[in-house]
Design a protein that fits this description.
The chain is about 80% helix and about 0% strand. The protein contains five helices and no strands. Helix 1 crosses helix 2 and helix 2 crosses helix 5.
């Protein structure tokens, strides 16, 4: 994940925490909550990437993940997954809706 995407995901999680009013909890609790939410969001995005990756590209993508930088893997995804940004946006919207119960 690139630095810009990482910052965007961090902002997304921070907004979720604030929307639930959990930003007023003890600092250590908020830090742990943020880490847990980041993991959950990243897992959801990764699952969406795998579902939308052309089947013939998955084996190469797995090797790329093991041997290349996150930026290279992200570039590969952008080249091989049609409308990746929209797919990610949809997953984030679904996550927000489920987390906030809206």
């Amino acid at each position: 994940m690139s630095q810009n995407n990482s910052n965007s995901i961090n902002d997304f999680v921070r907004d979720l925490i604030k929307s639930r009013g959990l930003d007023q909890l003890d600092y250590e609790v908020v830090v742990q909550l943020k880490a847990d939410l980041l993991d959950r969001v990243e897992n959801r995005i990764n699952a969406a990437i795998l579902v939308n990756m052309p089947p013939e590209k998955i084996e190469y993508f797995e090797k790329l993940l093991d041997q290349s930088s996150p930026e290279e893997a992200q570039s590969f995804c952008r080249r091989n997954i049609y409308d990746l940004e929209r797919i990610i946006a949809i997953e984030l919207a679904k996550f927000r809706s489920a987390y906030l119960n809206v």
